[in-house]
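Self-study notes.
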Amino acid sequence: MKDVIERNIERLLLLDTEQEREPVEPMTEWKWKRLYKTVCRYEIGPWIADGIKAYEDDFFLQMSDALRQQFLDLQGTKEPERLERFLLEMDRAKGLSHRLSMNSLKAYANDLIDNIKNIEE
């Protein structure tokens, strides 16, 4: 089962899809900071920054102005491999292999190839 942080990350990421936009769930400042750390770790900031902008008027998107600015400063190049790697890690962590998309499978294969190359070296 996903926690509120993961569900909100997915909501902020799914803006590029044609799904109906769900409102974000309320979170404490501490949880928003955890979400921020996760976003930085996986380098998916550009997508989340776009999501924060799109949800600007959402009542439950409540965080300090300083933290909001940190999210918005995560602008950069959207590298699909980073996003797919993040989604793959979420799937792995939750054992949701049935949800793997073709791009996630490609990311998994690339990870596997990298690991094999490292072993061979």
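Second protein, same conventions, sequence then structure:
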Amino acid sequence: MIKGKKERLAAIEDIVRREIIRNQDDLQKSLIDRGFEVVQATLSRDIRELKIVKVLDEEGRYLYVLPDAGGWTDNKQGANVSRGVISLEFSGTLAVIKTRPGYAGGIASDIDEHSHEVILGTIAGDDTILIIPREGRTKDEVRAALGRLNVER
């Protein structure tokens, strides 16, 4: 039986929820064990599509976690991305979010996807996100957009 993209994405979600996955090699091996043949480039696209992010666990090691519809989900390793935001500050109309190490990319991706009417874009490092509002948008509008995503502190 040939397994398609839909089945592969579901398998990836299941693997990330059930196993400790620290890198693409671990994920690829688990997929192969389940009968999927996948190259690194396809796996990278799947990870982006599923908005999987790397976060630090309690031991200071990175692991993959999945977002859920309500912001971000806990996985069995105890990582919770919704608790990743430390602070929000403005400089003029630009905003800077400080996050726990490893959380900025996933949070920025969520902001970009769900706040495009207020926020032009984000630039994320490991623990910092620069938020660039659309022309004419106020700090209060940016705060409201972030609040709808449970991002604002």
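Instructor comment on the second fold: The first helix runs from residue 5 to 18.
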